[in-house]
Amino acid sequence: MPQARELTAFGETKTFMDWAEDERCTVTLGALRDRVKYYVDTGRWTMEQAITHPLMDPTNRSKSEKSAKSAAEKRRMADLRKLALGFHG
User: Fold this and answer.
1) Cut 0.70: pTM above it
2) 9: helix, coil or strand?
3) Where does the pLDDT of residue 15 fall: very low under 50, low under 70, confident under 90, or very high at 90 and above?
4) How far from each other are the two terminal CA atoms of the chain, in whole angstroms?
């Protein structure tokens, strides 16, 4: 199995999954991967920008709806991580 890529920001080194679960991260895991590929790896953004830059949302949803969706996505990712690591219960 390939080793997970580690990324450094704010003086901390973490995997994509760990950064996506970090409270400073404003985007989903998929969006973070895309940002690193298209912006960080090409030198257009820093890793800190990729983590904290607000997601461009073309819809007109309220801030509370966006926040609820983000929190639900982070809980889902945490649950998936637990399953992947073999935690039960």
Assistant:
1) no
2) strand
3) very high
4) 26
